[in-house]
Design brief:
Elements: H1 7-23, H2 26-33, H3 38-50, H4 68-80, H5 87-101, H6 104-112, E1 117-120, H7 122-125, E2 132-136, E3 139-148, E4 155-160, E5 163-168, E6 174-178, E7 188-197, E8 199-200, H8 206-242, E9 244-245, E10 248-249, H9 254-283, H10 285-314, H11 325-337, H12 342-352
Parallel strand pairs: 1-4
Antiparallel strand pairs: 2-3, 3-7, 4-5, 5-8, 6-7, 9-10
Length: about 350
């Protein structure tokens, strides 16, 4: 039995990697972090030309009909290049939720490029004080906290209790407050809604759709951390080869060798975990929920270790903006907490396995 990527999956990941190598270079990311939003739009247009947004869309909507594994391969490259893209929410989480719910109208609008979805399901993964939405007819009021994918979103997929709803970003009664993020390559907002027009997502299986949306999101965040951590490891190895101390590369010192080896040893097995969790979302439904939590929690811990150790290999230079290492460091830190920190997610996994009542 073959346990690797097939030819189409490899080509997909390679094409995204080649595009991002020039479209999301460090200087461009730095510009975005300093307030120039052009990169997000450029990436959106470039990914559209590659067909990336169509990966999870059903073939009936003109999509490619692929699975979460293919989406995770794309997300891995986005993390590797710290790309400020709303792919996680717009073409990952939102498409999975709408697909499970069975709302073909919104899927059609996403496929046409008319709609780009941000996602706010914070109340389903860890409600904050003052958060929560109340739906009355076709009007919604309340506060949706930590809505992700605000880089290029035109609409937001939100939750009111057990119901999934869609609200247009420019609808009357919608006001947004941009949140200060440690990760400057992402934009998140808090939405205050006052009788704003809302469309309830078609279908009655909203509970399952919410759960699958969160599962897919956690897998994609794990894949994003995997890509970011891989890049931090490579940067540490390259720096250790070039940086000299006492007339020899620091990579020749045993302590530095061990630091790099420890990062590689911890990171390499994570690829199988993340890929299997992504594969399970579409092919092993009994394991989908559990593996998404295990991948998210474990990748958060390994990512934290790699981020810290890579920075240590770089020494004082690791803290400067000159090398830009902090963009990957902060990306990994943000992924650790989005959609549930490792402690909370492990507790959910324990409950699924019956270890906790």
């Amino acid at each position: 039995m073959y346990f690797g990527l097939n030819e189409d999956q490899t080509m997909l990941q390679d094409s995204v990697r080649r595009f991002l190598e020039t479209a999301s270079e460090l200087e461009q990311v730095r510009g975005f972090a300093e307030g120039d939003g052009a990169l997000a739009d450029d990436l959106q247009n470039g990914l559209m030309e590659l067909g990336v947004p169509f990966v999870l869309l059903p073939e009936a909507q003109g999509g490619l009909g692929m699975g979460v594994l293919e989406a995770a391969l794309i997300q891995e490259q986005l993390g590797r290049h710290v790309a400020p893209s709303g792919f996680t929410t717009a073409y990952g989480m939102a498409v999975v939720g709408l697909r499970i719910a069975g709302d073909t109208d919104w899927l059609d609008r996403i496929a046409s490029g008319e709609v780009v979805m941000g996602v706010g399901l914070t109340e389903a993964t860890g409600a904050r004080e003052g958060g929560g939405l109340t739906l009355s007819g076709d009007k919604v009021s309340g506060r949706a906290t930590f809505v992700m994918g605000a880089e290029t979103a035109t609409h937001f997929l939100l939750t009111s209790g057990a119901q999934l709803i869609v609200v247009a970003r420019d609808a009357e009664g919608v006001s947004e407050t941009e949140l200060t993020m440690i990760d400057k390559t992402r934009h998140a907002v808090t939405l205050d809604l006052d009788g704003a027009d809302a469309t309830v997502v078609t279908g009655n299986n909203h509970d399952e759709a919410q759960a699958k949306t969160i599962d897919a999101g956690r897998v994609l965040l794990a894949a994003d951390t995997l890509g970011a951590a891989e890049m931090m490891l490579e940067k540490a190895v390259d720096y250790a080869k070039d940086r000299e101390q006492f007339n020899r590369p620091i990579g020749s010192f045993q302590a530095v060798k061990h630091m790099c080896a420890d990062m590689a040893a911890k990171l390499e097995p994570c690829r199988a975990l993340v890929w299997y969790a992504a594969y399970a979302q579409d092919n092993v439904p009994d394991e989908a929920a559990l593996t998404s939590r295990l991948a998210k929690a474990h990748m958060a811990e390994v990512g934290k270790f790699v981020a810290r150790t890579s920075t240590e290999v770089h020494g004082g230079m690791g803290f400067t903006d000159l090398l830009g290492l902090h963009y990957w460091f902060k990306r990994i830190g943000a992924n650790r907490q989005l959609l549930g920190g490792p402690q909370a997610v492990r507790e959910e996994a324990a409950k699924l396995q019956g270890y906790v009542g």
